[in-house]
Amino acid sequence: MTKSYHTYIFDLDGTLLETLEDLTAAVNYAMRTHGMPEHSLADVRRFVGNGVKMLMVRAVPSGEANPQFEAAFATFRAYYMDHSLDTTRPYAGIPELLAELKSRGKRIAVVSNKFCAATQSLCRHFFPDTVEVAIGEHESEGIRKKPAPDTVIEALKQLGVGKENAVYVGDSEVDLQTARNAGLPCISVLWGFRDRDFLKENGATTFVAAPLDILSL
What we know:
It is built from nine helices and eight strands. Helices cover about 40% and strands about 15% of the residues.
């Protein structure tokens, strides 16, 4: 990649923020509360990527067929909204990357399958001066979650820019599919929830090992 990008659309969990411990704590609080088996960090790392409902479908025995599923999901949501900042933090180099992109006049948005309130709250807390638009899951308003391109399209619309000279940055196969569906090139980061071999198997072609490497692409 040698072209210069003007707009950067970032995934959140596993790309900008290390959220795995807080997600695991919320999952296991819901599991304990409803008498279900708890999960390891490695389990939850595999479960994430398709939104919190799918995370809980994978975590709850028998998924949505479990009569306690909705109660467990509600418990998870309530706990996570109160504890999403317990251990969550930006990956090393991310604040510096975003600040440098902004100083170069780039436009920055976040799209996530995390529910909208949590996505916007985390971006306001950690990136108040750099992330202009944050779009979370709100399918009730007709915006499908990733890998559908809807959140990316909505982010570009709110930024007031087209997809020309825009790039998507993410850490998972869902992000690769989202970029493809939105017609954007994709930068795959190697510090997130998936490794290089897995990403390569899912079509990744451009990798970065550290956030500031994005500046040299």
